[in-house]
Structures are given as C-alpha cells and as structure tokens.
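Input (structure):
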C-alpha cells in the first residue's frame, strides 16, 4: 500500500506542473487558478460544509486557513507564474525539488524528527539529481529572464512552511475537511487577485476547460490529497524525499507532451532521484526493524 500510495502521489503531483503548462497556453496564472478552485470549493463546501462547522474549532479553522494559503495559494501561484514567464514545467519542478533538503534540515530543531546519516545521504543524492537536471534544462531554454528561475524557490519555501505548520498541529483534521478549507481559502485568494487584475473572465477555448478538469481531478484530489496522506503515514523526511522524483518525472512528461529537452543529464538526474528514495526508504526499514528487535 505504501508503494502504491507513493507512486500515485509522484504521478499526480507531477501532473500539476503539466496542467499548469496546459492552462498557461490559454489564460493568465490567476485566471486559471481562480477557475480551478472556485467551483471546486463550492462543491466541497456543499458536501462537507456541515462537517467542517461541526468538527473545526476556531483555532483549528485558522490553522487550516494558514496551511491552505501557504500550501495551495502561495505555492501554486509561484509555479503558475514561473510557467507563464516561460520557465519549462520540468525546470519548475526541478527547482521545487530542493524542498526536501530544506525540510530535512529544519525537521530536527522544529519537530524533533531528526534526520539520520543515511537519510542525509539520500537527501544529498536527490539534491545532486536536481542540480544535474536543472542545469541541463535551463541551458536548453532561451529567452527567459534569470530572475524567473527564483520564483519557484518562493513556492518551495511556502510549501515547506505549510508542512511544518500542519506537522506541529496538536490535533488531526479529517482529510476532506482540511481539503475543503484549503480549497475555499485558495478560491477567495485567487478570485480577489483575478478580479483586481481584470482577468476574472475565463477563455472560451475547450483546451482551457480540459486543463481545469486535469488540474482538479489529478492535481488537487490526487496529488494534493495524497501529499497529506503520505505525510501522515510515512513522516516528513520520507514524503519529502519523494519530491525528488517530481523533477525527473515531470521532465520526461514535459518532453513527451511539449517537446521540452530531455538528454543524458536528465536521465542521470532521474537515476540519482531514484537512488535517493531507495536510500531513505531502506534506512527507514532498517531503523524500524532494529526498534522491533529491541
């Protein structure tokens, strides 16, 4: 089950970068994000709104709003804006792939979840894979401002912050309740931004609505929902190590769908990402076996 959940998480989370590329072809970032979350939030609140009111205290609601603003609104806005500026979907995913190293470094002092030497080895292998693929991909793309590559780093920091806020929560919120609050938060944020920018009207192109179906079904319910599920089952270090796989998977996907560059260095980065996950997972199994024997 852990393997299946991890595989599903990697594929559906990676689909978000591809969906951002599809949406960027027809509309601005805030337009796409507004129409991704507004109808979804209305449906979710209609289904589980009473449950939200019954189960959430004022403090829990405020915490989930903060998590949604960081993990959805802040993170996705930077991803979509970077793609809109011309950064490839693969490169955006690759830059976001530095998240595990940041989260791993902060997990000990903030959460008392200390990273072992074997896990650090895996994190460093994953970072090496990200660097290899990022440099290869960026070298093949022309006409993009240098500062555009810094935008996904802001999204990475936003997602790391959301992860720590959620991990430090004294109570666990039911996944559907949390998802409803997060989506409602994002719907408000992106609607306000789209109206303020004069970009609230959606394009009539069928490809735009196809991109929204893709984003809602695969990226929101699949990737975003599985992120929190795997986080609760496997812990912060393991779920963040899976993030190293987003970069090469997205690079392969982008090459097949959009003709984005994929060469020897991209393949090497994929191998390093796989090795990183194997090392961290193996370390976790060995530690669990030792604890059982003790």
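Output (sequence):
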């Amino acid at each position: 089950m852990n393997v299946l959940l991890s595989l599903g998480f990697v594929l559906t989370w990676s689909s978000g970068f591809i969906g951002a590329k599809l949406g960027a072809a027809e509309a601005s970032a805030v337009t796409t994000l507004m129409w991704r979350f507004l109808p979804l939030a209305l449906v979710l609140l209609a289904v589980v709104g009473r449950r939200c009111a019954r189960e959430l205290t004022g403090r829990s609601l405020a915490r989930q709003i903060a998590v949604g603003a960081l993990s959805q609104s802040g993170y996705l806005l930077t991803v979509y804006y970077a793609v809109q500026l011309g950064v490839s979907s693969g490169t955006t995913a690759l830059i976001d792939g530095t998240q595990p190293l940041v989260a791993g470094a902060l997990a000990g002092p903030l959460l008392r979840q200390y990273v072992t030497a074997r896990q650090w080895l895996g994190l460093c292998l994953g970072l090496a894979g990200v660097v290899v693929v990022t440099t290869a991909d960026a070298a093949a793309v022309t006409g993009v401002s240098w500062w555009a590559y810094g935008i996904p780093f802001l999204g990475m920091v936003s997602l790391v912050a959301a992860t720590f806020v959620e991990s430090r929560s004294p109570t666990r919120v039911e996944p559907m309740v949390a998802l409803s609050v997060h989506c409602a938060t994002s719907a408000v944020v992106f609607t306000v931004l789209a109206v303020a920018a004069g970009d609230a009207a959606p394009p009539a192109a069928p490809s735009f609505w196809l991109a929204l179906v893709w984003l809602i079904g695969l990226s929101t319910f699949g990737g975003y929902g599985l992120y929190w599920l795997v986080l609760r089952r496997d812990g912060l270090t393991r779920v963040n190590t899976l993030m190293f796989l987003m970069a090469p998977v997205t690079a392969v996907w982008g090459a097949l769908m959009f003709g984005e560059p994929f060469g020897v260095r991209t393949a090497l980065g994929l191998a390093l990402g796989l090795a990183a996950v194997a090392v961290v997972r193996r370390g976790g199994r060995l530690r669990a076996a030792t604890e059982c024997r003790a």
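Notes: Residues 284-294 have pLDDT under 50 and may be disordered. The radius of gyration is 19 Å.
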